[in-house]
Design a protein that fits this description.
CATH topology of the largest domain: Rossmann fold
Domain RING-type: 21-62
CATH class of the largest domain: Alpha Beta
Keywords: ATP-binding, Helicase, Hydrolase, Metal-binding, Nucleotide-binding, Zinc, Zinc-finger
Strand content: 5-15%
CATH superfamily of the largest domain: P-loop containing nucleotide triphosphate hydrolases
Strand order of the largest sheet: 5-6-4-7-8
Helix content: 25-40%
Protein name: Helicase-like transcription factor
Low-confidence stretches: none
Organism: Liparis tanakae (Tanaka's snailfish)
Pfam families: Helicase_C, zf-C3HC4_3
Mean pLDDT: 84
Distance between the termini: 40 Å
CATH architecture of the largest domain: 3-Layer(aba) Sandwich
């Protein structure tokens, strides 16, 4: 049973998607899986169990849950994931296409700001390396950020200052909430959304009251 649960947890983490904890409604941090095969942040599900004690139930399916039955991802595999060499991804046609677009825009108008959107947070991490190598100032917005940090990231990106970030790496799921990102006039989708409506919501973060430029949307998902 434990091996099956670890395999389920492994498949969730391997997808690189912004998996949501059903307790805090943010990206899962310190993931654990219950015996009913639902994934939560360890602090969140521990709080549920602590509050309900002997009557604790899974928030999703209402099965009985206990602290000593929670299964964590093996630490050695977590370390391997962190140390994965991103070189092959950095040189992929998709990454090269994105960087070509960003470099062209910078040559045409250095003040243009862009959103680079993916539902896979691991892919956003990979993109950080070529952005740094090419001298792009950027910020990242995903579900792992605290509310205070989210506010600060948006303020930095929205700033008209010459040294403000010109690229925001944005998790698709996090980009669906009511953000004001009118500083950006170019949106790059790096993979197809499971729900097309989330793409529209993301575009609306730029194309709203206060936008002073035309908004351009590019899908690099099929390159």
């Amino acid at each position: 049973m434990r091996e099956r649960l670890i395999e389920k947890l492994r498949s969730v983490l391997a997808s690189g998607s912004d998996e949501e904890c059903s307790v805090c409604l943010d990206s899962v941090r310190l993931p654990v899986i219950t015996h009913c095969a639902h994934v939560y942040c360890r602090p969140c599900i521990a709080q549920v169990i602590g509050a309900e004690q002997e009557t604790a139930r899974c928030p999703l399916c209402r099965s009985e849950i206990k602290t000593n039955e929670l299964v964590e991802f093996p630490q050695e595999e977590m370390e391997e994931e962190k140390n994965t060499n991103p070189e092959k991804w950095r040189k992929s046609s998709k990454v090269q296409a994105l960087m070509g677009n960003l470099l062209r825009l910078r040559c045409e108008d250095g003040s243009v700001k862009c959103l680079v959107v993916s539902q896979f947070t691991r892919f956003l991490t990979i993109l950080e390396t070529p952005l740094r190598e090419h001298g792009f100032s950027f910020v990242r917005f995903d579900g792992t950020l605290s509310q205070k940090r989210r506010t600060r990231v948006i303020q930095e990106f929205q700033s008209p200052a010459a040294d403000s970030p010109v690229v925001m790496l944005l998790s698709l799921k996090a980009g669906g909430v009511g953000l004001n990102l009118t500083a950006a006039s170019h949106v790059y989708f790096m993979d197809p959304a499971w729900n097309p409506a989330t793409e529209e919501q993301c575009i609306d973060r730029c194309h709203r009251l206060g936008q002073t430029r035309n908004v351009f949307v590019t899908k690099i998902e099929d390159v």
